Amino acid sequence: MSSQSLYVIKLGSSTIVHHPEIFEEINRIVKRGHQVLLVAGGAEAIRLKYESISRPMPFLTLPSGDEARYCAPDEMPIIRAAYHENILSIIDKQLKSYGLSVYAQLGGDHSLISGQKAKPIKAIKDERTVIIRDSLFGQFTGSHTSFLRSALTAFDVVCLTPPIFDPTLDTYINIDADILAAHLAIELEAHHLRFVTGTSGLLLDIRDPSSTISDIYTDDELSFVQGRMKQKVRAAQLAILEGACDVFISGPHTLLGSKTWFWNVSRELGALDLLNKVARIPSVSQDEHELANYLLDEIKLPSVSGTIDEAGNIVFRKGSGPHTLLLLGHIDTVPHVWPVRTDTNGITGRGVVDAKGSFVNFIHMLQEVDVPEHGSLLVIGAVEEEISSSKGAYFIRDHYSADAVIIGEPSGEHNLTLGYYGLFKLRITIHRAQEHTAAKDSISVIDELYHVAGEIRQRVRDIDSQSLSSLIDIKHQQARGFLTVTSILNFRVSQAAGKDYAEKLDLTFGKEVTIEVLRATPGYANARSGSLVKAFVRSFSKQGKSIHYIKKRGTSDMNTLATTWSTVPMVAYGPGDSSLDHTNDEYLHYREAAATRVILKDAVTEWFRLRLEE
To answer: Between residues 500 and 3, which one has the greater pLDDT?
Structure first.
C-alpha cells in the first residue's frame, strides 16, 4: 500500500501570478513523498486576459448585493484561453523549474470533470430584478477518479482548473474553484485540503489583518464573512462534513502563514477539544508533518518548550532538573483514514485508540503536572511507529535520555502494560525460470513459498514455542521467462526468545530463495518492582482501583528503546481497547480518556516524589 498522502491545494490566481514562492512550498510537500492535486482559480488571470484584448469584463449584481462574473456563451472561449495562457502555463513552468513532472489541464477537457448547468438566476439590472438564463455557471457532478488517481501516481503534481464540462449541454460550464477543490478532495479521499488566500486566513474584521480566527466549528455563527471568502468557507465546510481531510485557509499567499482551521464538531468541548482536533488531522505513517506542526503551533504553555526534531518527532519539555521522566507516544496511524465522528459518549476515527488518545493525555500533563525543581518532564510524539522503520523511536533512543519511560499505548483504564512481544520480520523472495506446470516434479513458486514459510515457522518455534506468525503482502510476477514471488513473513516473538534469537536461525534455502531480515526486535518485560510501577500502584489505589499487569503480544516503541536502554524502567498506559487497534471500529470513550488522565497525572506526580527520596 502506498504511504503517500494526498494534498488538495487550492491556489488563487493572484497567488499564482504574483507570488511564485508558493511553488517552493509545493515542491517541499512533493519531496516529502506525497501526492499533490492543485486546483487553480482564475479571477486575476481572467482580468488580465480581458485587459489584454481591451474587452470589458461582464458582471452581474445579485439580489444579495454581491457581484458575480457573468459567463455568457460568448465569454466562455475567453475564459478558457485565460486559464491556458495565464494559469496553466505559469504553473507548468514554475513546477518544472524544481524538476517536478506536471499534468495540467482544464477540468472540462476530455470530460475529466463533469457538471450540470445551474438554473436561471436572478440579477439586478437598472434597479429591476431580471432572470438570467444563459449564464454558463453550474455545479460539480463527478469526475473520472480512476484516471485522476493514476495521474497522481504517475506525476509529481496534477493541476486542474475550471471550467468543467456539462455532458447534457455538450459545453463547458464555469464553477467556483474553491467548491471544485472541496468536491475533488471528497471524491479522492484526500488527507489534507488547503485554501491559500491573500489574507491571513479568515479575518474577523477584514480591515484588520491581525484579526485571524484560528478555529471554526460547525456551530459557529459566520455572518461577518464577506465577499469571495464566503465561497471558501462554504467549500471548507462541505469538505469537513463529507470528507476525511483536515482543512484550513491560510495566507497571505502561503501555506505557512496564519491559518484558520475548520472542525466538524461543536465548539463546546472543553477538555476534549484537543483530542477531537488531533483525531481530525490525518497522520498516516510518513505523513506526520501536518499534525506535528499543528501541535507545535497550538501548545503554548508557560515553562514548556517545544520543537520538532530531526526525525520529525514533536518534542515538549517542562522543567530542567536532572531526573527525567519521558512520556513517549506516537502520532502516526495505519491507513486508511475515514471521517472522524463525535457523539456524546466518545469519538470514532483512525488512530483515536492507537494511539492519539494516549498522546493527548500526555500533552495535558504538560499543563496539569507541577514538575519539581529536580525534575524534567519530556513529552514526545514519535513518527513511524506503525511501520518497520520505527524512525522516531530509534532517533529518541540514540539522541535522548531518561530515568524512566511511560509509553502511550492503549492498556485500558484498569491495566498497566509491563512488556511486549518482539517483532521479527522477513522478506522471502523466490526467483526462478518458468516451467510447464505439467512437467515432472513441478512445483509452483507459490507452493514453494508456502513450503519455505512453513519451514521457517518451525525453526522459529524451535527457539520460541510462544511465537505467533502471519504471511502477508504476497506479490507474484512473471517477466522475461522468470517467475518471482515475494512475501513478508511476520513473527511476534516472546521475551523468552532472548535478544539474540535471530542469530540462532538458519535462513538458508538455496540460490533461488532469498531471505532478508527486515526487523529483529526482541521482546521486553519490565519488572513489577521499582519506583515507576510503585507510582502507578499508588495512583490506582488513590482512585480506589486495583491494578492489573499485562504483557501484550504486539510491539511498541518500548521494544526499540529497550535494545540499548536496558536499565531504564518502562511501562505503557493509556485509554482504549487495544483489540480495536488497526481496525475500522476504533472508538474511544470520553469517560475512559478522562479516568486514565487522572491516574496518569497522579502517577507522574508520585514518580517525581519517589525519585527525590531515592
So the answer is: 500
Among residues 156, 166, 246, 385, the one annotated as catalytic is: 385
Residue 613 pLDDT class (50, 70, 90 cuts)? confident
> What is this structure's pTM?
0.93
Does residue 373 share a domain with residue 283? Answer: yes
Chain centroid to CA 65: 40
Question: What is the rounded distance in angstroms from the CA atom of residue 68 to the CA atom of residue 59?
Answer: 6
Asked if residue 379 is part of any domain, the answer here is: yes
Output b/e per residue, 429-454; b: 16+ Cβ within 10 A: ebeeeeeeeeeeeeeebeebbeebbe
- Does residue 242 register a pLDDT over 60? yes
Report the pLDDT value the prediction gives residue 1, as an integer from 0 to 100: 38
Cα–Cα distance for residue pair 253/255, rounded to 1 Å = 7
Amino acid at 522: P
Q: Distance (Å, rounded) from C-alpha 603 to C-alpha 607?
A: 6
- What average pLDDT does this structure show over 2-16? 90
Q: Are residues 399 and 537 in the same domain?
A: yes
pLDDT by residue (tens digit) across 100-130? Answer: 999 999 999 999 999 999 999 898 888 889 9
- Per-residue pLDDT tens for 269-327? 899 999 999 999 999 999 999 999 999 999 999 999 999 999 999 999 999 999 999 99
pLDDT, residue 3, reads 61
447 and 370 co-located in one domain: no
Query: Would you say 323 and 403 are in contact if contact means Cβ atoms under 8 Å apart?
Result: yes
Residue 503 is placed in which grid cell?
A: 542469530
Closest listed residue to residue 70, CA positions, set 58, 82, 61: 58
Among residues 245, 384, 269, 341, the alpha carbon closest in space to that of 585 is found at 341
Cell 492507537 belongs to which residue?
Answer: 354
Q: Give the domain extent around 439.
A: 423-520
Active-site residue, selected from the candidate residues 176, 178, 288, 332: 332
- The CATH number that applies at residue 38 is 3.40.1160.10
Domain count, the chain: 3
Residue 385 annotated among the catalytic residues of the structure: yes
In a domain, 528, yes or no: yes
Residues 370, 277 share a domain: yes
H/E run at residue 561: helix 557-562
Task: Name 194's Cβ contacts closer than 8 Å, sequence gap at least 6.
Answer: 7, 8, 9, 10, 247, 248, 250, 255
CB 543 within 8 A of CB 410: no
